[in-house]
Structures are given as C-alpha cells and as structure tokens.
Amino acid sequence: MAEQKERAKATPRKTATRRKATTSSKTTKKTTANTQVPKIRKEVRGLFTMLFAFVALLGMFNITSGTVVDVIAGIFKYGFGFGGIIPCLYVGYVGWRILYADEGFSFTKRGLLLSLVYLFGITVITLLLADPGQELLTTKIATQGGVIGGLLAVLLRTLLGDVGAIIVAVVLILGLLLLIYQISLRSGLHKAKEKTDVGLEIARNITEETVHQAKERYTEWKEQQAEKRRAYNQEKDERFTKSAAAEVIANAAQVSAEARAEAEVVLTTETPSQGITIESSVDSNQIKEVLVSQASHQSDERPAEEQVANMVADEDDADDELEVPPFLRGPSSYPSVVDDSAHSEAVESTAAQERYEDEAVAIDESDIEAASITKPVAPSTASLTAMHPVPTMDGTAEDTAAVAVTVGGAPKPRRIELPYRFPSLTMLSKGTVNPVTGQEVTHNVTVLEETLKSFGVTARVVNATQGPTVTRYEIEPAPGTKVSRILNLSDDLKMALAAIDIRIEAPIPGKSAVGIEVPNKNVTAVHLRDVLEAEKFQKARGGIPVGLGKDIAGEAVITDLAKMPHLLVAGSTGSGKSVCVNTLISSILFSRKPSEVQLILVDPKMVELSVYNGIPHLKVPVVTDMKKAAAVLRWAVREMEARYLAMSENGVRNISGFNERYPDKAMPLILIIIDELADLMMTAPDVEEAINRLAAKARAAGIHMVLATQRPSVNVITGTIKANVPSRISFAVATQIDSRTILDMAGAEKLLGKGDMLFNPIGASKPIRIQGAFISDEEVEELVAFVKQQGRPEYDESIVEEVEQELVEEADHDTEEQDELLERAAELVISAGQGSTSMLQRRFRIGYSRAARLIDTMEEMRIIGPANGSKPRDILMTFAAAKEKYFTK
Prior knowledge:
One of its GO terms (biological process) is cell division. It is found in: Cell membrane. The chain crosses the membrane at residues 47-69, 75-99, 111-130, 136-156, 163-183. The chain is of the alpha/beta class. Among the domains are: 239-405, no CATH class; 438-519, Threonyl-tRNA Synthetase, Chain A, domain 2; 528-800, Rossmann fold (3-Layer(aba) Sandwich), CATH 3.40.50; 817-887, Arc Repressor Mutant, subunit A. Helix content is 51%, strand content 9%. The longest helix is centred in the first third of the chain and has 59 residues, at 2-60.
C-alpha cells in the first residue's frame, strides 16, 4: 500500500515537470519568432524602398508610363529638376542598406555637407538656365533645378542680384568641398609657387651653365688658334724648303706635249665683289705655275682675285728665285705630308693666310678689262703623273703641327660642376587610404563600454582617433576610478574586441583620459612620399630633417637627426628596422646636398646598404669589413677632436656657429649609420669605446650616429650607450624585457610589426606610436641612380689611407711570434666562461709566468676583459671570432 501511494505521488510530479518543459519550449519559440518578425519587416521595408526608387528611375527616363509611375517620378523631377536622379539613386541606396546591412538613413556631418553642396548645385543650374522671374515656371521647372532650386535661386537673386548670386553659390560649393575633403587652398598655392620657383631656378641655372660652357669652348678655340700661330715656323719646316719646291717645278717641266696643250687653257674666274669676268693667255712658264698651283691647291678655297694675281704676275718675276707657297701638298693619291689630317688642314689654312698677306700681287687693270670667259679650268690628273711625291716628315723629330695643337702635351679635359638638383618626389608612389568605417568604430565603442561596465568600471568613450594602423579610443573613467583597474583588464578587453593585441596608454599625456589602441581591420600603408610632401619637411631649414611615418592621428612625423643628437633603432627580425634605415637615408637624399651632409655607412650584412655605393654624399665607400669599420670609427673620433680644436681656436661653441662665422670654411654634418651594432661589437669589440666617445661628445662637432640592431640585449645596448643615446625607436619585440632594454619601459611587445614603432625622442615623457613610412627597393634604386647623375663621390683619401695603415699594422701585430698554447688557452677560457692564471697552470701544467703572459696576451687581444677584483674576467669574444681574427693564417 505504501509503495502504491509513493508511485501515485511520483506520477503527478513527473507530469508537472513535463508541463514546465513544454511551457519553456513554447516561450523560447515565441521569443525567437518575436525577434525574427522585426528583421523580416525591415527587409520588406528595404525591398519596397528600392522598388520605389526603381519605379521613379523608370519614369524619369520615360522608359514606362502610368499614373503611379508619373506621380512617383514627378516627386523627383519637379522637386529637384535636372538633378532629381541623384536623390532617386540615394533612396535606392538607403533601401539596399536596410535590406542588406540592417542600417537605414542616418545623419552625419559629412552627409549634411554633401547635401548642401547638392542643393547649391541645383541652385546654380537654375541661376544659369532661368531668366529672372522665371525660376518657378511649371513648363521649365523640370529641366532646371526644380522647386527647391528655384526657391533658393529666387532668394539669392533677391538678396545679391543675378551675378552676385552665381558667385556666392559657386564660392559656397567650393568652401563646402574644402571642408568635406580637408583640402587647403593655401598649402596648394604655396606648393605651386614653390614648384614654380624651383623650375625657374633650374631653368636659370641651366641657361647660365650653357652660356658659360659656350664661352669656355670659344675661349679654348681662340687659345688653340693662338698656340698654332705661335708654335708653327715655316722657315724651319723641311717640307717647304726652296730645294724641294725647285724639284717639283723641274718635274713639272717634263710634262708631255699633249698634256701641255691641254693645259693651255684660258683661265676663267669671276670677281665676287664686282662681277667682272677675267680671261688671259699664259705662256709656258705660267703653265708650270698653273700646274703646280693645281697640283697643290685642290683642297684650297682661296679667293678668285688671289688665284689670278699669282698667275698673271709680271714676267720679270720669273727670273727671280721661285718660292713655293707653304700650303703646297700633292693630290689625294700621294702620301700625306702630315699623318694627322686634321692637324695638317689646320696648319695649311693658317700658313696660307700668312703667305697671301706677305706676297700679294697687284693685278693690272688693263689685263682685267681685256679678259673674258671661255671655259672653267679643271685640274688635269694626266699632267701630274710625272710628278714625284712631295717630301714627307719621316726624318723629322716631331710633328710641328701636332705641337701647335697640343703644346706641352694633350690638353687636360675640364670638369664642369653642374648645379646640384634634388630628386623629385614624383619618383615615389603615393599610398591609398583605407578609412575605418563608422560601423566599426561604433561597434568597438559599445564593446569597450559594456566590457568595462561588466567588470565594475564605469567609463565612457569621449573620442576616437583613427590612424593608419590603429584607432585610439579615449576613455574617461568615472571619478574615483583607479587607472590600474583599466590596465589590469587588458587581456579581457582584447578578447572582447577579438583583436590581435591592444595597447593601453594610461593616462594620455596632457589629457584626463585613458587611451586604448585597437588595431584596424583595414590597415593603411604609409608611403614615404605621403610623409615627405608634408609642409613641415618641405620648409625644414638646417640640420638633418627625416620623415619617419604617420602618428596615430594620421599626421606626418618629421624629426631632425641633428637635434636628437644620436638615434638608436632596435627591433626583432622582420619588424621594419631596415626599411626605417632606408627611409632615413632617402629623406636625406631628397633634402640635403653633399656639401651639407656627408654619410658614413657601416653594413656588416653586406647587402642592406651596398645599393648606396657611388652616391656623392658618401665620405667613404660603404664599409662592410668590420676591421675597417673599427678604423673608420677611430677616424671619426680624431675628426671630432680636430673640429673641437678648430672651434676653440676661433671662439665658437658648435659647428653651426663656426659655419655662420666662416662660410668659406664651412664643415658639413657627418652622419654615421651602423646597420647592425650587435654584429659589429661581436667581431670588433674595440669599437665600443669609439662609439661611446662619439655619442658623448660628437654632437657639437656636427657628427651624429644612427645605431640599428635586431638584438636588443644588454650586451649590445649597454648602459653607457643608452645614457649617451637619448632618442630611440623600438619596433616590435618578443618580450617585455627587450622593450625595457630599448625604451626603459614596456609597450614595444604590444606592437603589430610591419613598421609599427614607438618613437621616444629626447625630452619626451612618453613614446609616440608611429606607423613607419615604406619605400620599396625599386624606388631606392631609382633614387640612387638619379643622385649618382648629380656628381661623383669625393672620398676622403685620408680616411682610406689611415684605415689601410691601421690594417697593415694590425696584420703585422698578428704575425708576431705567439705562444704555441695561446689558441688552446683561448679556447679553454672561452668554453669555461672565465679565465685565470691558476686555471691555465693546472690544465697545461705550466709555470706562473707563462700562464700570466697568456692571460695578458688575451686581454690585449680583447678576448677577455680586464681583472675585476675577485670576480672572474668577462668573455668579450666567441672562439669562432677569435680564431678567425687571430689564429687563421
């Protein structure tokens, strides 16, 4: 009985439980249905909105007609006139947004400004097409600006008149467009003026240089002509002696009768000045002279009067001693008198001119009047077959014609310095902007506020600043809220936002707000051209201005390396360090001449900076050998001391004061860029001292350094280097310890890589987040090729000689006699991690003196450090590096 009662009691309970489950499932279904109904309604609403716009378009283009179509199309056609298609398309777009993205019409500042631009646009259309008083005519309203455009046109014409209304409307449109797209007319006009000034300056320089070159060429030609006249002496020339000329005349007398008869021709010429024709008969003696003249003057272009004068001279002159003109030479078939045809022609023309001036013969006017033309005289090659070759210069010691052209040796080519032209930014590509959508910002704001509220932190987002890579949300906590509570929620916020990583800046310097930096879904690449086109870079004067990138607000970050005064660049592999170094060098090439800034590039990798070999800014070729790098840094120390000495003697405190006082002795700024500091310090440990000295003192001497490394450890970035290099850039690193090593604070481990950096300049309380500028390898090669065309590098020979001398001395030191146990002792000490005399005595079973000498030798070689009391000596070099430097023959 008891069991039956218990069963009876249990049965109703199960029934009640089932009822409750059924009720809850029904409630859930109702809730789901209730939530789905509004969504479907919105989709239907969006669909009908699109249908409304589609029907309006059909009516506006007269594709179809009907009462409903005409009414819907008339709303847009008569309301907005010629521009009615734009609001019609916008209605269709709103319907699509309702259907697809569950977003309807929303008011924004940008949308309001664009609407105003549209309204003033249709107003301008009405003002241009409608006569005064006809703005609202029903027959024309649809083809003008509609009712709205007509009303605005009537208002503006009433207030400002016809012309004034058009001008005001156009100006308002331009002003609204400037506000929408953030375009500055002032900066545009300034840029246009600057480009025009640069173009005019280049044109003026090119014109001046062209005129200068032409003057120099003319002066050189005049000097060469003068040298020819001074160097050539006909009386000493054996080719033109009287005996040689008499021999030629004698040979000419043996001409055959046929040739002589053929040669008895009437000389014909024309006087250019008077147009008089000349005819005269010549006897046998004159024929000889004619034949000699024809044989020797085929290439001579003398005036006709002088030719006739030499042939119709008085017969009494035949009894005189015959003298051959100095321009005598045989026909082209005979050997040339002078081997160099160019020199011979120059000498002949000069000598002939002098000869004509000295032996000019007057022409009898009576003979000229009796002359008439019969036929021109042609040179007879048959009559010259019996002539002997003209004497050559085989027996002479030197060619006087050649001496006349190049007295004292070949002329030294002149090097003309062209004006230096800066490369144009057009060779770099511009970046594209991927703006953060308002929907993404709104979503992140809601998530941040709700997440903080769920953890008991009351705060609200007061501002959102969009940058190329991240967006910073400024959160204002409620009074009495600790900042540390927000900092401790970093991982929870990252999970709520589904972000790769976030960085919290608490508080933002100068604001009573906490900044939460969230990565953008669409990252905008920052190109170097976008940075260097900034007005701050274009107007930079003095120093070494460089472009780093854009900050979190999208503003270009331009800094001066001369004011840093040294820069440390560190980050993990692939974080953008090498690209940053390229942007620094490229910025210098775009803004500074070789006379203003000179570079010393140290590239242990041998591939990063070798592309810059040959640019005129280099002080020495790109250094890839670590031994040479150490020597170059030691030269830089000596150069620093020499500059300080010069400044102290002239009573100035820094290089800028020295250059202002003595512009003719101006010293350029020197920038030393070391691409991999860790490799340099490992292979050449003695460079640390030189780097420390330069970092401590070189600022006032105009010597600055950029130290880059991908190994941010305390062995590389020592305390002394950090103390003397206050300006630092940190790219993405692996751990917080590395971030503290570089920046003395955490934060770099939160960076995203690919150029995302923290820049901590001298004097800044907190680092600035920057998206580094990008320049491709092709752009670097094009830039370097252009700069190489502006001039050749003038390497400092003293640096090269000193470096080579130090390498020779170091090699001599290495070849000195060494202890046979030195290599084994170095291997033992390095493997053990410490070195002591007693350890060497025990291991090698040698005496104290020999073991102490081994320790001293290794200390001189910088394999181990100096004694440090009771502590073991530091190991300064790996055994592989020591073996390569000291024990490899």
